[in-house]
Each structure stands twice: as structure tokens, then as C-alpha cells.
Amino acid sequence: MNGIIFDLQRASFVDGPGVRTTVFFKGCNLNCLWCHNPEGINPKRALLRYPEKCSACGKCTAICPTKQSDCMLCGKCALLCPNDALELCGRIVSVDDVFAEIEKDRAYYEKSGGGVTFSGGECMLQIDFLEEILKKCKDANISTAIDTAGNVAWSHFERVMPYTDIFLYDVKCISGRLHIQGTGVSNKQIKENLIKLASQFSGKIVVRIPVIGGYNATHEEMNAIAEFLASLNISQVELLPYHKLGMHKNEAAGVSYKDFTEPPTDFLTEWKNRLNSII
Length: 279
Prior knowledge:
The protein has helices at residues 59-63, 76-80, 95-103, 106-112, 127-139, 154-160, 176-183, 188-200, 219-229, 248-253, 265-277; strands spanning 2-12, 20-25, 46-49, 86-89, 91-94, 115-119, 144-148, 166-170, 204-211, 236-241. The protein is of the alpha/beta class and 279 residues long. α3 crosses α5 (127-139). It is globular. It has two domains: 2-45 and 90-277, TIM Barrel; 47-88, Alpha-Beta Plaits (2-Layer Sandwich).
């Protein structure tokens, strides 16, 4: 079985406990205005263009089979570009391809309490592919985590829960109006799925909240999140402060974005302590 990913990072320390391999699935059904991985939104392979790096040398046009009139996504231009102004994003991989990369760091997982994290984009959109990789990892006693925004059918969760140790569950905000404004979609299904997951999942659930200045970094919205989480069986809450590091990728991927602000450190400290004290 094949799927499509846009990155695979080994020796990660930010996507769950211990040393981890993070596999980034392509395709997302949210369009967050602050997205740090905009190249992962499009579910198909795509050519990213970074015009600020282009020196107009003409090598890409010379090597292109169609002279850039109809891109075939062959990737020849990206390989030849001397300035990395072009990048072919997305590769078709099999379950065995991905598992072979995951297994390379088994010794580090065992020593650190780490494992593999499936992220995106939204990994749950490629549910057949995800389920098969999860099964293979569990058969090999490799710890598994799913990083999800939760905007999928509940049946998807039911399929992967038996093979998952940790869910990293994104909560952007509680206000439905604000959620649509920032992501383009309702959060009704997202909230319903988290309530069900917290009542049925026997593993660890870590709620991760992107904190965006000018969007949800207000006491009103954080209080609403706290009230929502208070009655749920959550293991931990993590706050992910907004940063601008991925902004240059939005133009390359053809994705609209908005320039938000980084939240104050004292605001983050206060709400990290308050949110974790209620769970």
C-alpha cells in the first residue's frame, strides 16, 4: 500500500516523548492562517517556487521537458537549480519504505522512551495507509503517536486507537466563529471527537494549543479552552507559541497567510500552569 508524505524527520524531540521519528503526511482539510507547514496542505505532489532565491540563470527552462508550459512534476528543474529556488514537494512511499526508515532508530527509541509520530498535514486523512503503518509498528513494539487536528470522521479514530499509544490533539480555540475565521472550518466535529476520545482511549492524550497573538492569545479564549478541557481525561496540555519561521514557505506553496504576533512570555507561562493544573 502506498501513501504520500512531504517529510520524514529523524531524531526529533518535539513531537512526543523521547527521541522520535516524525513522518509528515501530505494533505490537510484545515487552512490555518498561521500554518507552519503550508507545503503539507495540498494532498498532491507540487513544485514549490522560491522567487527570492532565483538568479534567472535559465537552467530550469533548459532542462524542462515541456519548457515550463505544462509541469509534469518530474523534478529535473529542482535537481538542477543551483540556488534551491525550486523544490519538488511530496513523494509516493510504501508502508515498507516508511517502516524501514522508522526502524533505523529503534535503539534510540528504546533508550529514550521515544518512538514514531505521524503528523502532517493531517495524517488521519490517509487512514488506510496510516492504519497499516501503525499495525506494522505495533507488531515491532515501536511506540506510536498521532498528531491530529481531529477534523475527521470518528470511525477513523476507531480504526487507529488499537495501535496508538499517544494522541497529540490540536485545539485552536473554542469559539466556533473564531475557528472558522482562523482555519476555514467549523470546530464542531473536532470538539466532539476529543470528547469521545477522552472517554474511550486508554493511552495518553496531549492537547496542543497554538497560541497566536491577534487571534486566540486572549484570557477570554484561554478560559473557554480551560472550561472545555476541565472535565476531560487529558494527560497534558502544551502551548505552541506562534513564530514566523515557516512564513517564507507560504508563497512558495501558493497558500495565503496572515502575519500574526508572538504571544508574551508571561501570558504563555501563566496559561501553561493554569491549564495543566485543571487536568
